[in-house]
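Chapter review: from sequence to fold.
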Amino acid sequence: MKEFSFEKLIVWQKSRKLAKTVYSITKQFPTEERFGLISQMRRSAISICSNIAEGSGRNSSKDQARFTEIAYGSALELLNQLIISSDMGFIEEEELSQLRVEVSEITSMLNGLRNSQTSKS
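The token string follows.
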């Protein structure tokens, strides 16, 4: 089976794992959040790895970098939603701290990827 270039990227692998974690965590949120915070968080998490994948299929480095920027924005959006979830008592402080570390690693890697992409153009 063919492996696409984005599948080899550690940042994509980590963001895929984070998306899975977000789905797991949000299963325990109150049901009334199904169309609110749960939906938003899941979309943000999926958007990170999806934009990395979509950008890898673009021909120009400039286009690739744009999708990496979108992935970065989605990571920050997710972090904001995680903080709000903690404020609302849906996740524990310890869990938020661990997720912050994961988001921080991903955003650092996305910065590196974007720098690499923009240096090529």
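Two observations follow directly from the output. The chain has one domain: 9-25+35-120. The chain has a mean pLDDT of 97.
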